[in-house]
Amino acid sequence: MRIIELSECDSTNEYLKRLNGEEDTIVTALRQTAGKGTKGRSFSSADGGLYLSVMRFYENFSAANAFEIMINSCVAVCKTVECFGIKPVIRWANDVLVNGRKICGTLIENTFSGANIRRSIVGMGINVNNELPPELSQIAVSMCEILGKRISLQTVKQALIANLQKSFTINDYKKYIDWFGKEVALHTDKESYTATALDVTADGRLVVSRDGKIIEISSAEVSLRL
C-alpha cells in the first residue's frame, strides 16, 4: 500500500482521483481547503484533525457487496479511537459517534464497471485536536475534548492506517451499535417518523419495526438520527 503524506490539499478524495496508475494508495493531509462530506456538504477540516483517504482497486468485486467497504472503514475508525480509551458507537450507516456527537465522518465514492466495483475511494476525517466551529459544538466532538488533553496525531494516523489494512465483518460492525431495540428517528425527503431499530443486514439495510411491520430500508432512502 503506497502512503502519501501532505501538509495541505483541497480534498484527500479529490487528490486520489487525480492520481494516475492503479496502485492501492492512502493519502493523509494536515488540513483540507475543500473537505467533502456526504450529499455534497462541506466538511470542516482545520489543523489538528486527521484527514485520510484510501483508494483500492478490485477485480470481480460485486457491487452487491459494496457495504463491505463501509464495514471495513467504520470498524477501522472505531478500533482506532478505542486504542485511546474512547468508546465509539456507529450511527448507521457510516458515522462514528462518541456520547451522541460525531467524531468521524466517512465519504465513500465508488467507480463501477458493469455490475462490479472497479475502484473505491474512502475518505474519513477524525476529530483529534482540531477546534470545531461553534455551530458544530452540539453535534461533533474531538478526541482532545473527550480526553481533556492533546493526542499525538501521528499515533492516531499510524493506528488508523494499520486498521484500514485489516478485514472486518458485519458482526464486527454491529458490535459498535448500542441502539438495537430502541426507537430511532428516520428522515426522508417526504416524511419523518420513528421506528424500532432491529438489525443491519449484511448488505447494509436497516431493519426496523414500524406500525407492527418489519421493513428493510437503505441509507439512500432515509437518514437516521439517534
Explain what the structure shows.
By secondary structure, the protein is of the alpha+beta class. It is 20% helix and 36% strand. The chain contains five helices and twelve strands. It has helices spanning 12-18, 67-82, 143-147, 153-164, 170-174; strands at residues 2-9, 25-32, 50-57, 89-91, 95-98, 101-113, 116-126, 183-187, 192-200, 206-210, 213-217, 223-225. A seven-stranded mixed beta sheet has the order 1-2-3-7-6-5-4, sandwiched between helices. Strands 11-10-9-8-12 form a five-stranded antiparallel beta sheet, with no helix packed on it. Helix 2 (67-82) packs antiparallel against helix 4. The relative contact order is 0.15. The model has no long low-confidence stretch (mean pLDDT 93).
Please name the defining characteristics of this protein.
226 residues, 5 helices, globular, alpha+beta, five-stranded antiparallel β-sheet, 36% strand, single chain
List the helices and strands and how they pair.
Layout: E1 2-9, H1 12-18, E2 25-32, E3 50-57, H2 67-82, E4 89-91, E5 95-98, E6 101-113, E7 116-126, H3 143-147, H4 153-164, H5 170-174, E8 183-187, E9 192-200, E10 206-210, E11 213-217, E12 223-225
Parallel strand pairs: 1-2
Antiparallel strand pairs: 2-3, 3-7, 4-5, 5-6, 6-7, 8-9, 8-12, 9-10, 10-11
Helix pairs in contact: 2-4
